[in-house]
């Protein structure tokens, strides 16, 4: 090795000598995600690691997203196997209080209606197929639709199974639109309701006993087992976390699950989802389509929830404020807070937060069930 | 393929509604059974369900709840 | 796909259409474990995850316990390799204070005597072989015997090596009987001792210096290395955790080991041990045999400890209360508390707790050594 | 096979007793050597061994110890 | 199996019957490491686990360091893949405050000069090759040189890639000499400087804004991407941790990274690096050579930093105390504290600590860049 | 092989100096740009950079800093 050949070898291994346009663009995209995470606080817990993972995955030569690269290895271990999204679901279960939903269970149906966003978007993706140079098969359409579930782990779990090549744009769309819920939802909510409907006051929620909260995760898993076993990894992980939370005899596990366990998995999941932002995996016409469709998914879900809310309000004995239907898309607890805020505009004494938590958490279950149906029929 | 998608929608929404409908029934049944069970009234602490009575609450209490929700940074669900 | 065929596909993938009787029974068994964990506080840190893992593993279609299923993957990673029980042993080491044993080392021999439960049960299993439709080979008998060690991680480690197909019932038996120690032990203790023996007061324990506590884990590992290297993974992990605890220079590691590390591993270990509660792996005549034999194991161990206690009391210069021999089965710290309680019945001023901790912790070492002997001769 | 089990028992119990017997000797030897070593008396803090003097303790102190043991939920060993 | 044959089998599996001289020696070496960690507080967080891993890896029969052994498995999972050192780098990034370096950036060049230790030692290793029975190829020489970087994770990452067979002695040398920095550096620092130079007072550091601290990790990664992509796994992990720390929107992740995540990885990394202390992997003439060369590496790095400090002091507008150049070897924050102490000897009012932190943290970057160059040209 | 090592040294040290030299320029450029950006003066909190003014500090403050550094047990870097 001479000095010249050494420098030549080195030059040929620099980023400058190996950059592709695609990588440059994706680095810019990743920086935008990081900017949104930090400056606009767009779901920073996820979008910061995803964005940084995107940066690392678009570095030429380094091969960090390759199967044997730093992040490729983590992806293979935790995302390709489905392990990380399920561990995160355990954590979310341990953080979720189903009290408001148990206190007024029929509001759970609003979380069912909001899943229409998933299937409407699925249809939309199929309608786009063959147009504008886009090509989506049924599995792709299902993975895109799940963005409307507004649940990150569910979206990552389903997409990693049905359409891993679209995982990057799906995860980015899901978390970005979740962050945009305060901007996307209010106009739709105001458009579909009258001022009088928005001012409806709901009955105070009843007390929920510890026992009811302990039985709840078990009966949910039971129904899931009988009806749609393909959803049991998601629902099972979710309900395990919730049982750990509510049972009262393993508080140290509950604390660790909600703390260091979910944090560590979030970091590893975020960074390794970022590998799907590598230029060759992300820069397709399909990505634009996915972003547009994801936006529609959130809008449709919101509308369906609000409309069912209006119908239920008409036929229910106790009044139901239709706004809380919008919380059925999940995006916990952001969507419920949006409901509270829009409700206060029409009636400054009307605190809908707790009432909106019912559809909000039932929407998480609804999306996991929808994912189970799609897995059962398409995989 | 579009018709496949339509079927998926009908089937999927049906299952989601059946699932959550059954869950509503299960919750109602549970609360009824537990109320009739011995010891339900005495031994059972009304737990954090106590937190679920906001309708009559003042602005200050809500502010506290919302702040605590903000803390529960929920990682995208 | 038509609507009809879609619903047919879906129906054929429901739990309702695929349930087996075995799965239904095992779901009931898992629910009983969860009930015992929550309501009776039977070792809830382990039995709750094991029970929930059992639920998930008996869901038809979902295949959660399969090699590529959610829990099957974790099992392959952490139990089949032996990793999780050893990491738990590091945590237990960091939680164990050997001070009482170092202060009165001859009580460690009581922890040796109690291991008779292991070998008596091994004999019992062999005696049952060929009767009542039961079939146990030497490895199975050894794995069943180790239940008598009353140490969960040791039992899981040995069974996963010698008889993985029995792991489910062995783990369930081990943790259940540990929880039942306050019910199983006292009658045996009272039957084998006179009231006068139970009232024996022991000499106050001497001070133990920090240096002695630091040397202890190293000399224990040294003896193990010379005598029975096959026990060094277990003893080594245990003593590493203890050295981290006692050395005083890595307190942040000690805190993490006792906190989030052991918690995370416990959750993953419990859930994945639950995969062995899948109907096809659990529902054999052998399981009943294992439960009966496990009960005998605890009883024999207790008796052997108490009897050696009586003998040592007769020949020792300083008085030894024979009750503390019962703590030699381990089940730390439950068995030591049982000793304290039974002792107080005969002499309300006689606090045996600290004296019982000596045999209690030496019983952990004794069981690991016994497991090493079985591994050396049978694997 | 039953005789194999008997040998296993004899061998196993022997090794366990030899092991813990040697450990007793090692502990005694350690404490003797450390007591003779320079600085053993002064530099060494009597550590948590101070906790190991319960015989004369009152009921209150024991209650505290037992409560702390209860906290140390020991995960099945 | 008869009793006799049983005891024979057992005897043939004891450590006593299988010990080799090499294992006995390496157990003694491991005990020395543990002694130094506990008694002399030589980097105990790493040297205690490494030493204990060394104990376990030299136990005959047990095979704990084998590919399927307890520690061999962890090694394969975390070190052979490079995962653990990178996760530790994320943790170190989250613990590092680059404020002092951003406030006075030209001091970063001192951290460049100190890397001369790496390359001088590389030359030294090549010069020794063929003499005294030592045999080092270019990759070995590079791995030995990196000891001079005084960064454990960088050394382990590079050695595991270029010369895994030397990893044990390289890791031991790196951490041991880091612990010896207060003994190795001061004589060199005093020899190369006049009392007047050592008494130089530096200008108060300016304020650094939050924004500057957020931009810093991103621009560092950008330069690395353009110049030397092979260093991006190390620099990327380091800068990710630092961005998580500084961005202010993911404080819970930052806390977990600095706490339980780095602790858990440290334990697993330390124990599994200990597998390279197995007699057959450690007891070569090369090990002695590595220890001697590692000492030289630290000395050369210190000298180069101090000499550049003298030069910069002469030509800089604002005075620069040459002592802070010694901190450029990294060994954060030990080397910076040594600078502060030596500075106080000459001028009791001269607190150099913060000024020394600039070269100190830039030395971490410098070593990672040097490792990248070596990887690019040699792997 | 020794000459290979020499080239490695020349190349390696060059890259390290170029890298950190560019970094110095980048830091200077960043601070200049940020100072000119709107909101830089007002919105920006002077953050923990406030900690980086030790030259004039008394011994007590330094002691506190060093103690906090000692806490930050840095795992060998
Ligand atoms: Na949802
Ligand atoms: Na035991
Ligand atoms: Na360095």
Textual characterization of the structure:
The complex is a heterohexamer, with 3 copies of chain A (379 residues) and 3 copies of chain B (77 residues). By secondary structure, chain A is mainly α. Chain A contains 19 helices and no strands. Chain A has helices spanning 3-12, 21-39, 44-57, 70-78, 83-95, 99-103, 108-113, 116-128, 138-145, 152-162, 167-192, 195-198, 210-227, 232-247, 251-273, 279-282, 285-315, 334-346, 353-378. The longest helix of chain A is centred in the last third of the chain and has 31 residues, at 285-315. The mean pLDDT of chain A is 92. Chain B is mainly alpha-helical. Chain B has helices at 2-36, 59-71. Chains in contact: A-B, A-C, A-E, A-F, B-C, C-D, C-E, D-E, E-F. One sodium ion (NA) binds at residues 149-151, 329-330, 363-364, 366-367 of chain E.
Distance between the termini of chain A: 54 Å
Cα distance spanning the termini of chain B: 30 Å
Shape of chain B: rod-shaped
Helix content of chain B: 55-70%
Bound molecules: sodium ion
As a percent range, the share of strand residues of chain A is under 5%
Helix content of chain A: over 70%
- Give the total of beta strands of chain B: 0
> Which word captures the global form of chain A?
globular
Low-confidence stretches of chain B: 41-62, 64-77
Number of strands of chain A: 0
Rg of chain B, please?
Answer: 20 Å
Structural class of chain A: mainly alpha
Encode the helix/strand succession of chain A as letters: HHHHHHHHHHHHHHHHHHH
Mean pLDDT figure of chain A: 92
Summarize the main sheet of chain A.
none
Salient structural properties:
heterohexamer; A: 379 residues; mainly alpha; 19 helices; B: 77 residues; 2 helices; rod-shaped; disordered C terminus; binds sodium ion
């Amino acid at each position: 090795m001479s000095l010249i050949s050494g420098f030549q070898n080195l030059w040929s291994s620099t980023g400058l000598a190996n950059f592709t346009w695609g990588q440059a663009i994706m680095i810019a995209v990743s920086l935008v995600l990081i900017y949104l995470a930090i400056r606009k606080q767009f779901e920073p817990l996820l979008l910061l690691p995803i964005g940084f993972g995107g940066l690392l995955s678009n570095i030429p030569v380094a091969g960090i997203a390759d199967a044997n690269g730093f992040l490729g290895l983590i992806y293979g271990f935790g995302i390709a196997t489905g392990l990380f999204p399920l561990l995160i679901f355990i954590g979310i279960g341990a953080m979720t209080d189903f009290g408001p939903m148990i206190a007024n269970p029929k509001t759970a149906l609003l979380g069912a209606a909001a899943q229409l966003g998933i299937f409407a978007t699925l249809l939309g993706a199929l309608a786009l197929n063959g147009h504008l140079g886009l090509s989506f098969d049924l599995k792709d359409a299902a993975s895109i639709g799940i963005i409307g579930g507004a649940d990150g782990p569910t979206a990552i779990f389903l997409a990693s199974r049905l359409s891993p090549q679209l995982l990057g744009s799906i995860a980015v769309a899901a978390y970005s639109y979740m962050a945009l819920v305060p901007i996307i939802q209010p106009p739709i909510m105001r458009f579909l309701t009258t001022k009088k409907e928005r001012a409806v006051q709901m009955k105070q929620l009843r007390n929920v006993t510890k026992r009811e909260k302990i039985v709840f995760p078990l009966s949910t898993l039971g129904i899931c087992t009988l009806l749609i076993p393909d959803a049991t990894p998601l629902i099972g992980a979710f309900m395990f976390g919730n049982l750990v939370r509510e049972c009262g005899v393993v508080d140290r596990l509950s604390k660790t699950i909600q703390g260091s366990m979910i944090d560590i998995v979030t970091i590893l999941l975020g960074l390794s989802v970022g590998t799907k932002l590598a230029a060759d995996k992300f820069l397709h016409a399909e990505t634009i389509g996915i972003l547009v469709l994801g936006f529609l998914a959130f809008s449709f879900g919101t509308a369906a929830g609000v409309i069912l809310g209006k119908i239920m309000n008409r036929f229910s004995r106790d009044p139901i404020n239709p706004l809380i239907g919008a919380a059925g898309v999940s995006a916990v607890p952001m969507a419920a807070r949006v409901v509270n805020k829009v409700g206060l505009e029409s009636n400054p004494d009307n605190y809908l937060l707790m009432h909106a938590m019912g559809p909000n958490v039932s929407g998480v279950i609804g999306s996991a069930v929808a994912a189970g149906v799609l897995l059962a029929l398409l995989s | 393929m579009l018709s496949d998608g339509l079927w998926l929608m009908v089937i999927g929404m049906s299952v989601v509604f059946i699932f959550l409908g059954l869950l509503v029934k299960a919750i109602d049944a549970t609360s009824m059974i537990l109320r009739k069970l011995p010891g339900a009234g005495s031994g059972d602490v009304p737990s954090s369900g106590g937190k679920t009575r906001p309708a009559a609450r003042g602005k200050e209490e809500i502010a506290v709840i919302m702040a605590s929700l903000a803390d529960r940074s929920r990682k995208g669900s």
